[in-house]
Amino acid sequence: MRSGLMLLHSLGVLQSDAVTFQPELPTWKQTGIETFSMGTYTKIFLQFPPDQVFWNTSYQYLLYADPTERGYYPIFQSLDGEGFLPGSGIIFVTVVHDESYKVESQDDQVTKDQVLAVLRSMFGAENVPEPIAFMYPRWSLEPWSYGSYSNWPPGTTLEMHQNLRANVGRLHFAGEATSAQYFGFLHGAWIE
Fold first, then answer.
1. Mean pLDDT of residues grouped by 10 in the chain (192 residues)?
2. Pairing mode of beta strands 37-39, 75-78
3. Between 20 and 30 A from 192 (CA), which of 101, 107, 163, 182?
4. Which residues contact residue 26 at a Cβ distance below 8 angstroms, ignoring those fewer than 6 apart?
5. How far is Cα 183 from Cα 36, in angstroms, rounded to an integer?
């Protein structure tokens, strides 16, 4: 029976100084790892008292267009609707890329104040109470991920991806970044 080692680190971890290889990886493999990028996608969750829900829970998406800053808390999703968690009082907002990095680097209170200001501008300050719970992950700062998902930057070729996913001797690389069909998605790691 042939033995080997399966490496399941995220692309963000492979690109950081958290993992070193002895001997060093071949240049083609290191280039394959460095070619791709890690994106970050942050969902910010707020829970309000169920008897004080101020949005129409029959809508799954609520959009906000800031007049001066693109991507500033733009997409809210209700989890308090049919088929999700009715009666939960939970809503979340998604930010990506630059806004996500900014949010992940600031403290919870700053983020909560910003999100509440947006909601209060959308629904009226008198209608939006203080949340009873508030949380969000900081994927780009987590030492086990350093990002939310892998991404193919413009100009990336299939050969570059083949180098990223290729084994080095008995060292097998796996995870969502190595999936040809579902890179960037959790099930890509499962299927791969």
1. 81 92 95 92 97 96 94 96 95 95 96 98 98 96 91 90 93 88 78 70
2. unpaired
3. 101
4. 168
5. 11
Q: Encoding tokens for residue 17?
A: 């100084």
* pTM confidence score: 0.86
Contact 24, 75 (CB under 8 A): no
Instruction: For strands 37-39 and 149-151, give the pairing.
Output: antiparallel
